[in-house]
Specification:
The protein is of the alpha/beta class and 797 residues long. It has 29 helices and 30 strands. Helix 12 links the parallel strand 17 (391-394) and strand 18 (410-413). Helix 5 (81-93) runs antiparallel to helix 7, helix 18 packs across helix 21 and helix 28 packs across helix 29.
């Protein structure tokens, strides 16, 4: 019995304190089974073969000196890493377990079979190094995993292979790089009952945004079949994002992103030959279907929150869904090792200074920009020709590619998601990468000069040529508090998380039209009246975009709601002011199917725009979709911090009509804490401020339009550019009058424009007049906060 306890530890008997005995993976599995079972988190049963078994295996087979000698040969350059590594691994494979260890493993396996009422339990055999998954280092993919192992003989063989994998070329190289002593790192083996995800789905999730470190997001990747394809980056998986603070509260469904992956193949069981698994092509239906339902996504999101809270740190977790029972399981959990190690005080931003032709797009890994020549390498046999400083372009990577990944300026792959090998290693190396492009190896040419940009949000882009870019360091430490609320302007949902570290208190302007233009791309009325769309090309494009949606308007509502939710999540629970669509007619016409639904206007800037559209029969159906999206983001997903803002509202009568249409669409001001703001862009808004204040909860000054209409200057006219000035006395007087009138009625006033950052004296004027909030582009926030604090301090003195 004592011998068994020395070599075998059941998961339920382990905790986080046992890392030196069973390694990080196994200790974590035991910790979850012991501590989180009552929380409803399911972990498959199993046992760990201890590090003692590893040390005694070395001793019984006299391997220690032989291994050390071969390692010394590498250092002395007597043997190459490849030859020495192969020789070390062969030593393990040619050795045998002692009778005592063999019996201990066999007895434990038979007990596991008994627990699952089967003669030959299918198990996963995973390596768990005693230095693995510690916060200081990630050994992702360094050691081997064997799936669908059945029977005692196969189990013992797989355990030997796991021991041998401690000395793969990549593992030796990695330990050398990180300063780990090879002979002080032991290996434990985890033997865990398989989840039949070969008939279901599996994947990886993170309890933190993998690219920005935003702590409130769960990122879930998933694909059909066993999870190895997701981990190895052999396919492009589905991706889901869940907002943790709202998960499990008031029946909210805070799934803020769902992206369908191509999922070209899946890994399943096989009985042919020596292999226990194989890859097969997915069906057309599987490729077009999400692998998880919304309820399953939310359940994983809830579990992640519980696991993260228990461990007190961001986590990297593998999940699996049993296709036979429909049950979800957690099969691994370890600390996240990249974003969690970054300091919160300072961060660096990258910005392109010129535009270029987009060649390829995929998922952005990191937020850097890199330039250089593309090196298209389709096979590991070609690794030798890679030139340091080039941008690696390939189908996918595995640990054998790490040596050249370290030398690359950037990495681009055809396949893979945010949890693929290429993504994990590039983050750890601090090298920008774009994964899951599908066609990079076909589009990009060897030696071609390109720019790789991960600085534009979730999507990464490859541009033709070497483009100029700027690097800025942002220091968020020792930032003073201000009476004036400082907020941000955000256009793209994809970019919202990049700025979560800034000391802002909300978003003063989220432009709905950017989501419509960049994500949805279709004119809303072309979806409302799809059967009436005459343009064949537009019809085909709409069909393609809305594939899978029975109701084409749902495509618009779902994408808009999720875009709004992403922006709202980035500043939750601070207020996020979402401006209803404010395209001009010529801009609306450029949307797919738009020309048919828009009038031709001589002067769109003063035409059919803003509030006038919302109650017009020409656009009323489109506005209803916008309202549905707002309602969903607030009431179904839980982002009650969203405030509506109405642009370009010309008259009191128009204000009443818009308030009425909002109510008709289930958005009644004051109900469910709904606030409705109005833009101040027209002199009438200032002149009748007190009457507008009776109808709206807040004002937001649009200084560009207000200046244009106060001075009668076309803001786009180069000839009149010298006359266009927000600091003109007439404009300042209007702003001053607005603030006096609004504050009489207790109505808040903000400004959402670049003028306060461009002109310090203008910011000073606003603060002294008592403006409630100033909303700025993210790159201006820190300097304006400092300036505003000085002004407020001087006023007190």
């Amino acid at each position: 019995m004592a011998g068994k306890n020395k070599y075998i530890r059941w998961f339920e008997d382990l905790s986080s304190e046992d890392v030196q005995v069973v390694g990080g993976k196994n200790a974590s599995l035991g910790e979850m089974i012991r501590s989180l079972k009552e929380e409803g988190i399911r972990v498959p049963d199993g046992f760990a073969i201890t590090a003692d078994a590893y040390w005694e295996f070395l001793e019984a087979n006299n391997l220690t000196e032989k291994i050390q000698s071969l390692l010394n040969d590498i250092k002395k350059r007597k043997k190459s890493l490849e030859k020495a590594g192969k020789s070390i691994r062969q030593l393990f494979l040619n050795s045998e377990f002692s009778e005592e260890i063999t019996n201990a493993i066999s007895d434990a396996y038979r007990e596991l079979c008994k627990r699952y009422r089967t003669k030959k339990a299918d198990v996963a055999v995973r390596s768990s190094a005693t230095a693995e998954d510690l916060p200081e280092a990630s050994f992702a993919g360094q050691q081997e995993t064997f799936l669908n192992v059945k029977g005692e003989k196969e189990l013992l063989a797989s355990c030997r292979k796991c021991f041998a994998s401690l000395f793969t070329d990549r593992a030796i190289s990695y330990r050398e790089h990180h300063g780990f002593d090879h002979m002080k790192v032991a290996l434990s083996v985890g033997v865990q009952k398989m989840v039949r995800s070969d008939k279901g789905s599996a994947g990886v999730l993170f309890s933190i945004d993998t690219e920005t470190g935003f702590p409130d997001i769960v990122v879930i990747n998933g694909a059909w079949g066993l999870g190895e394809n997701v981990v190895q980056g052999k396919i492009t998986p589905d991706e889901y994002r869940v907002f943790k603070p709202l998960t499990g509260k008031n029946n909210f469904k805070p799934i803020i992103e769902k992206q369908l992956g191509t999922k070209e193949q899946k890994m399943v069981y096989t009985l042919r030959g020596k292999n226990t698994t194989k890859n097969v092509k997915t069906t057309k239906k599987e490729r077009r279907s999400f692998v998880l339902s919304d309820d399953e996504i939310l359940k994983l999101g809830k579990w992640v929150g519980i696991i993260e809270e228990h461990y007190g740190k961001p986590m990297d977790i593998e999940w699996a869904k049993d296709g036979k029972t429909g049950e979800l399981f957690i099969v691994q959990a370890r600390p996240e090792t990249v974003q969690s190690r970054k300091g919160a005080g300072t961060f660096r931003t990258y910005e392109l200074k010129e535009k270029g032709k987009r060649l390829v797009t995929g998922l952005a890994i990191g937020d850097l920009i890199a330039t250089g020549r593309a090196m298209v390498i389709k096979s590991s046999r070609e690794i030798g020709r890679f030139k340091e400083g080039s941008i690696l372009v390939t189908g996918m990577t595995d640990p054998d590619w790490v040596p050249i990944m370290k030398k690359s300026a950037g990495i681009v792959t055809d396949y893979g998601g945010r949890t693929s090998h290429a993504a994990i290693v590039s983050r750890e190396l601090g090298v920008p990468a774009i994964v899951g492009t599908e066609n990079a190896t076909k589009v990009l040419k060897d030696g071609q000069e390109i720019t790789l940009s991960c600085a534009e949000g979730d999507r990464g882009y490859i541009y033709e040529g070497i483009l100029d870019f700027e690097i800025s360091d942002v220091d968020t430490e020792d930032i003073p508090e201000t009476r004036t609320r400082i907020m941000m302007n955000i256009a793209s949902p994809d970019a919202a998380y990049r700025w979560w570290r800034l000391p802002c208190k909300g978003i003063g302007l989220a432009r709905m039209e950017f989501i419509i233009n960049d994500t949805i791309k279709v004119h809303p009325m072309a979806l409302v009246h799809f059967k009436k769309v005459k343009d064949k090309k537009a019809r085909n494009e709409i069909k393609k975009l809305t594939s899978g949606y029975r109701d084409k308007t749902e495509y618009f509502v779902e994408h808009l709601a999720r875009g709004i939710a992403k922006i709202a999540a980035s500043q939750y629970p601070h207020p996020v002011i979402v401006r209803m669509s404010d395209f001009k007619t010529n801009e609306y016409a450029n949307l797919i199917g738009g020309k048919q639904f828009e009038p031709d206007e001589e002067n769109p800037m003063l035409g059919f725009r803003g509030a006038s559209r919302y109650y017009s029969e020409r656009y009323r159906g489109g506005f209803a979709l916008e309202c549905r999206a707002i309602k969903r983001a607030r009431e179904e997903m839980g982002f009650m911090n969203v405030i509506i803002m109405i642009p370009f509202c010309r008259t009191i009568g128009e204000a009443d009509r818009v308030i009425g249409v909002l109510a008709e669409n289930g958005l009644k001001r004051g109900e469910k804490d709904l606030q409705v703001y109005v833009m101040v862009e027209i002199p009438s808004n200032v002149i009748l401020a007190e009457q507008f204040a009776e109808r709206f909860d807040g004002f937001s000054i649009g200084s560009n339009d207000l200046t244009q209409l106060t001075l009668g200057v076309d803001r786009d006219s180069a000839e009149l550019s010298k006359l266009f000035d927000e600091r003109d006395e007439a404009v300042l007087r209007f702003i001053s009058n607005l603030l006096k009138s609004a504050h009489k009625t207790g109505t808040k006033v903000g400004i959402c424009g670049q003028a306060p950052s461009d002109y310090p004296d203008f910011a000073e004027f606003l603060v002294r007049e008592g403006i409630d909030s100033i909303s700025l582009n993210p790159d201006s926030v820190i300097e304006v906060i400092k300036h505003v604090a000085k002004v407020e301090k001087a006023d007190k003195a």
